[in-house]
C-alpha cells in the first residue's frame, strides 16, 4: 500500500465507525435492507478486510446478530447469524467522494431458514 | 514491466471470462493451482458442478466485471450476472424471467495461479426476480 492508500484506508475505517455510531452501517440500496435493523438484534460489527488501491477503498464488514424478527419472509429463529457486507468508497484529496454498500444474502439465507 | 498486482487482475479477469462466460469448465486445469482452496462450492469439482447448474438454468447468462481491486496476492471483484431463467433452478421450473444480480468474488493468486476463492451473491434479489409474476 502507498502512503495515500494507507491514509485512505484509515479515513474509511474512521468513517465506518461513525456510521456504526449513527446506526447507519447496515444501510444499503437493496430493497430488503431496511428489514436488517428490525430482524437482527444485538448487532456487532467488525471490519474483516480492507482493500485500498489508487483512489478506491473496499471494506468487507462482518455483521453478527441474533435473528429475532421477520426477515424477507423468514420468521425469527433465534439463531445467531453472520452477515457479510461490502462497502465501497472513492476518495478525492483524502475525502470520501462516493460510497456504495451491498449485503450478501447467499450465505445469510441458509443460516435463518427454519430447520426442516 | 507489469506489477504482480496487475498480472493478478489479468489472471482473474481471464478466468472469469473463460470459466463463467465461455463455460469452458476444463480451464480450471490451467487457471487453478494444484492445492486450490474453494470456500463456496467445496472443491474444484463442486465449482464445476455449480457452474453447470447455473448454465442449465440460465443458458444465456452473462457475467460483467463492474469493479476490481487488488492488494498483494488478493483480488476482489464485484460483478453482475444477467440472463433468462430458461431451465430448472434449485427445483424451480423455468419462468422465462430475466435476472440481474450482483455478486462479489475474492481470489488469492499465487505464482500466476488462482489458489483460493470465496464468493457472495444476493440470493434474496435473485429469488425475487425468479418468483415474481411478470406475465
Automatic annotation (TrEMBL), chain A:
Entries under InterPro entries matching the protein: Cyclase_SnoaL-like, NTF2-like_dom_sf
Top-level division of the source organism's lineage: Bacteria
Gene3D superfamilies to which the protein is assigned, alphabetical: 3.10.450.50
One Pfam family in the UniProt entry: SnoaL
A biological-process GO annotation: polyketide metabolic process
Protein name in the entry: Ester cyclase
UniProtKB/TrEMBL annotation, chain B:
InterPro entries documented for this protein: Cyclase_SnoaL-like, NTF2-like_dom_sf
Domain of life: Bacteria
BP terms from Gene Ontology: polyketide metabolic process
One Pfam family it belongs to: SnoaL
Designated name of the protein: Ester cyclase
